[in-house]
Write a structure and sequence with these properties.
Length: about 260
């Protein structure tokens, strides 16, 4: 029964594998049997991820690049495919956030967020889909939105726009690639303790405020994203396509009114 969750023999490209949520996913997919291609900008941290995977008996390759650099992404994926012979899983986890009041925002900030979060996911998914199509074995593309994907949030215009776009992109890719057994699904994290929200964690009252609106009354630990990602990447999810899987302690399902019933 557990065999259906195995990633043995698969090549899994994981973006954001240098830290945060992507690193435990990279390690988890390697532990499930995949040869992981760890992608992000910080080569030193990626080497650390690779070392930890290898120390645990897994296989990993480092691919250091900036996701907003289209040429680097296309060349990087093609080199990986040539070297490893296949790509079965493309887990797009990397992302950035930028808090700014509307009238202080400039187009450059907006563009940087869209380029990394949306264009990076699009180009990476497009290149991986081409490799999957050529291999004829189907594949798995996973994107990462947010609890803020379907919602708005003050001072997070570019981020919310990018995460809504990721959901639309996911559904469109799923509609197009499903007939080739390439599934495309999205994971929408709630509040996890990583660097992306370090400034919030240190703001007085913020930790408790998130606990207060989350039915499980706590923040997520980075390892708690791994199971959902492995599920979507595995044979356990062969007929799951175009979905948004919220991994958020229930925060997206609950009316956020903090007085007791
Ligand atoms: P994080 O700790 O800040 O890590 C972000 C990751 O993205 C790092 O590995 C970073 O690596 C990589 N990255 C950023 N810009 C990149 C670029 N231009 N090119 C290549 N890699 C880049 O954030 P996280 O918590 O792991 O977030 C992962 C994903 O989950 C993001 O898409 C985020 O929006 C989403 N999410 C997180 C939360 C949360 O509470 N943590 C909630 C909702 C959604 P380098 O710096 O080495 O490039």
């Amino acid at each position: 029964m557990l065999e259906m969750f195995s990633l043995k023999g698969k090549v899994a490209l994981v973006t954001g594998a240098s830290r945060g949520l992507g690193k435990p996913v990279a390690k988890g997919m390697a532990a499930a049997g995949a040869h992981v291609v760890a992608v992000a900008r910080d080569e030193e941290k990626l080497q650390q991820t690779k070392q930890e995977i290898e120390e645990a008996g897994g296989k990993a390759t480092v691919l250091a690049l900036d996701l907003s650099d289209e040429d680097a992404v296309r060349a990087g994926v093609r080199n990986v495919a040539a070297e490893l012979g296949r790509i079965d899983i493309c887990a797009n986890i990397a992302g950035i956030i930028n808090w700014q009041p509307l009238l202080d925002s400039d187009e450059e900030d907006f563009q940087r967020t869209m380029d990394t979060n949306v264009r990076g996911t699009f180009v990476m998914s497009q290149e991986c889909a081409a490799v999957m199509r050529a291999g004829g074995r189907g594949g798995r593309i996973i994107t990462t939105a947010s609890v803020l994907g379907p919602l708005g949030r003050a001072k997070l215009h570019a981020y919310c726009a990018s995460k809504s776009a990721i959901i639309g992109l996911t559904r469109s890719l799923a509609s197009e690639l499903g007939r080739e057994e390439i599934t495309v699904n999205c994971v929408a994290p709630g509040y996890f303790l990583t660097e992306i929200n370090a400034n919030l964690q240190s703001r007085p009252g913020y930790m408790d405020a998130i606990n207060g609106v989350t039915p499980m009354e706590r923040w997520g630990k980075p390892e708690e994203i791994v199971g959902a990602m492995i599920f979507l990447a595995s044979d356990a999810a062969t007929f799951v396509n175009g979905q948004v899987l919220h991994v958020d302690g229930g925060v997206s399902s609950s009316f956020k009114f903090q007085l007791a019933a």
